[in-house]
Amino acid sequence: MPRIPRVRHLAILAALVGLLVLVLLPDLAFAAEGDEFEKYKSRGWGWAYLGAFGFGVVTSLTPCVYPMIPIVIGIFGGRGKQVSRGRAVLLATLYVLGMGLMFSVLGVIFALIGKQSGQLLAEPAVVIPIVLLYIALAFSMFGAFEMQLPSFIQNKLSSVSGEGVGGAFAMGVVGGFTAAPCTGPFLIGILTFVTKTQNVAVGSSLLFTYALGMGVLFWVLAAFAVALPKSGRWMEYMKSIGGIALLTAGLYFVRPLVPGIEKLVWGSYLFLAAAGAVVLVGVVLGAVHLSFHDAAAVKLRKALAVALCVAGLTGVVNWVVHVDRHLPWQRDEATAFQMAQAEGKGVMVDFWAQWCNPCIELEKLTFAKSPVYETITENFVPLQFDMTKSTDANDALLKKYAAGTPTVIFFTADGKEIGRVREYQSPSTFMKTLAPAAELVRTQREAAAKAARNP
Q1: Which of 23, 124, 177, 414 has CA 20 to 30 A from 373's CA?
Q2: CB 332 within 8 A of CB 313
Q3: Tell me: the pLDDT tens digits for 118-132?
């Protein structure tokens, strides 16, 4: 019997880790290649760790973490008990180490998930809980309910600083959960690196460093008892903005389940202006500055304003990913290579997925632009493999071509590889690979035509 509470605690911690994975999985799958982490890592691992620490500091100042500060101060200060500065710093350190453990475990989980993280977002059993979780987090931001720790942990808070260091460490473990909705592109970049390389050691240490950055604020508070600005109206505004963003993100994540959404959007700037105007109307009506804790009429007005903002932002997001013109894609491998041989062209193979943001960016911002579009259609048969869902056939294609998402490969008609791109590239950068490949195809085509004229 004495072990039952401990089992219960472990179950709650496991549930918190699971929720963290659900919160971060969509951001990870939709993350672009050229994120903040890649910029730092390209300058060396020292900069990568320094960036992780710095962005952790920034995260500690977000609306997701700020409301937890009074509770954490209760741990360091003993809720009225006399605690020495040295002991306060010790408790803060253990709290931060516990938070670091939570993020390190997160790194290990994503390393185990590996490259399947994006494919999970094509499964309704994964997407629907994620969307519901984002809606719940948004309602919490709007004040419908308070996100708080389990009651048995809250009851423990009053005695943590007087009891010992173990409690502070345990509180830090669960404390990392509160920052999840406000994590930025840098943390997502780290998780992207972990899933691609499955390098548990480096990924976990980077996440631990990120948690140390988040802990700077708590160390300062524990050591110097710095007075923080009161959590007033400005914090409510920030939470409203966060709630609107979470609802918009939740709607975006259902795209893989409802492909027809794309048909409701067109690529003109008039559509973008109209969507932006809807957002502006929502802000003016009170999506940010009004409160759901006010009179019924005010609540109704804010609800309408929030709905307008979410609808407008959804339109903007869908306009961003809307493709103005599509290449004449072939879907069958054998047919594509037969067409290439008959037309004297090569084959451009594109590994694409609905959840792959770099894939979407390539199709919208690169393939559809001149001169990329014209160069491809004149010299290659475009062949696209849809990797949205994980199937045996898709897994076999990925293995056969040693590819991932995104990957674009250029072949001659006889199957010789003559170029490969593994990330999003702007049209000018993409042309550096496409142009030589197209020139080789043109040379072969001219040689074949000459040989046909002079047998």
Answers
A1: 414
A2: no
A3: 555 556 666 677 677
Q: b/e for 299-314, b at 16 or more Cβ within 10 A?
A: eebbeebbbbbbbbbb
- The whole-angstrom separation of Cα 206 and Cα 191 is 9
User: Which tokens go with 86?
Assistant: 């040295």
Mean of all residue pLDDT scores within the chain: 76
Q: Which amino acid is at 365?
A: L
Distance CA 78, CA 76 (A): 6
Residue 23: enclosing H or E segment and its boundaries? Answer: helix 4-29
Confidence at 53, pLDDT banded by 50, 70, 90:
confident
Closest CA to 364 of 303, 424, 439: 424
Give the ranges where 322-426 is alpha helix by DSSP (H).
333-343, 357-361, 372-379, 392-401
Q: What is the pLDDT of residues 419-432, one digit of tens each?
A: 999 888 899 999 99
Residues 6+ apart with CB under 8 A from 327: 363, 367, 373, 376, 377, 382, 384
Residue owning tokens 């008959």: 342
How much is the pLDDT for 38? 67
Which helix (H) or strand (E) segment is 348 a member of?
strand 346-352
* Closest by Cα among 43, 71, 79 to 162: 79
Give just the sign of the alpha carbon dihedral 394, 400, 404, 410: negative
Q: Is 267 in contact with 308 (CB distance < 8 Å)? A: no
Contact by Cβ (8 Å): 189, 79: no
**Of residues 68, 345, 360, 84, the one with CA closest to residue 222:** 84
The radius of gyration of the chain's CA atoms, rounded to the nearest angstrom, is 26
The one-character DSSP state at 285 is H
Q: For residue 406, is the peptide bond before it cis, meaning its omega torsion is within 30 degrees of 0? A: yes
Dihedral angle sign, alpha carbons of residues 144, 148, 152, 157: negative
Tell which phi-psi region holds residue 28, choosing left (phi > 0), alpha (psi between -120 and 50) or beta: alpha
C-beta separation of 362 from 321 below 8 A = no
